[in-house]
Specification:
With 325 residues, this protein is α/β, with parallel strands linked by helices. It has eleven helices and twelve strands.
């Protein structure tokens, strides 16, 4: 029997799959596969788990070198729920010949839409205007003009799958779109609908900046004090990638000193965000719980894509979206 473990954090408060039952039925109808839910409180996969499961459908818990340290480890594949895989020790898995996959196709459009949702919310000052009505301050609306986009420049940091989709969806709204991606040529970025830019040049010229790159050692802390000091005072930064791409202390300083106009963060350096975080003190910062792109469609598609990777492994078919080949 092929044993599959699923992250307990993918269960909702009613102990039902947050992605719905349909994707799970793909596994359940197989007589050669057994499915088990892991404990919700787990923050890291243990050696005992990798000795029990052949495959793990993984959401938030980390998969480390210690996770696969036992000689009894039988784990063969980790299907990461989502596009990021910085929570998985890729080198350790490769040494153990454990396949790691992600779900880039399922999240491409949802994250791009979430980016624009955050951007439109900030530009229209939606949160502030909602508060005006709820707090009986209707007549203060003339003090809170939104920011028009027709003559503005959008900067996209990371022109991969999600960045490309964001550029595509953003074109009708902005006068200019700049993109920073050291792995792509000027011609490649032009074909995506943007102008290639260096990072600091993008900071200087953009009115809104969307961080959509992967987290690795080259991008960790990349958006720092030098970047913020190069931005327009009227500029906004949005992060829908991974929190550690931004140096959070530098961001807090930039907000406190009004070096930038504001921020929209779906991700933070530490998650959940501590209730003592200085980011909570700024009304020009919108914070969402690493879930802005989450919809029924998005999670159904993610689950199906991840589960199909496991099914393909069992059936000895081509493994799509392998990140450690």
């Amino acid at each position: 029997m092929f044993e599959v473990g699923i992250s307990g954090d993918l269960l909702n408060s009613e102990n039902k799959p947050c992605f719905g039952e349909a994707p799970l039925n793909i596994l359940k109808k197989r007589s050669d596969i057994n499915v088990s839910w892991m404990d919700k409180s787990i923050s890291e996969i243990t050696p005992e788990m990798t000795s029990k499961f052949d495959a793990i459908l993984l959401n938030l818990p980390k998969a480390t070198a210690n996770s696969v340290s036992n000689d009894s480890c039988k784990l063969k594949i980790i299907a990461r729920f989502g596009v990021g895989y910085d929570s998985v020790d890729i080198d350790a898995m490769k040494q153990k010949n454990i396949i790691v996959t992600n779900t880039p196709n399922a999240v491409r459009r949802p994250v791009a839409v979430a980016t624009l949702t955050m951007l439109f919310t900030i530009a229209g000052k939606l949160i502030i205007k909602d508060d005006l009505v709820r707090s009986g301050r209707w007549n203060e609306r003339t003090n809170h003009m939104g920011v028009g986009l027709a003559n503005k420049t959008l900067g996209v940091v990371g022109a991969g799958s999600i960045g490309t989709e964001t550029i595509k969806l953003s074109k009708p709204f902005f006068k200019n779109i700049l993109a920073y991606d050291p792995f792509l040529s000027k011609e490649q970025i032009h074909k995506k609908g943007a102008q290639k830019s260096e990072l600091i040049e993008l900071a200087k010229k953009s009115d809104f900046i969307a961080i959509l790159c992967n987290l690795d050692e080259s991008t960790r802390g990349m958006i720092n004090s030098n970047f913020f000091s190069s931005m327009k005072n009227s500029g906004y930064i949005l992060n829908l990638s991974r929190g550690p791409v931004i140096n959070e202390k530098d961001l807090e300083y930039a907000l406190e000193k009004k070096i930038i106009a504001g921020a929209g963060l779906d991700v933070t350096e530490v998650e959940p965000l501590a209730n003592t975080s200085k980011l909570l003190n700024h009304k020009n910062v919108i914070l969402t719980p690493h879930a802005l792109c989450w919809t029924d469609e998005c999670f159904n598609d993610i689950a199906c894509e991840a589960i199909n990777s496991i099914i393909n492994f069992v059936d000895k078919k081509l493994i799509l979206n392998q990140v450690n080949s």
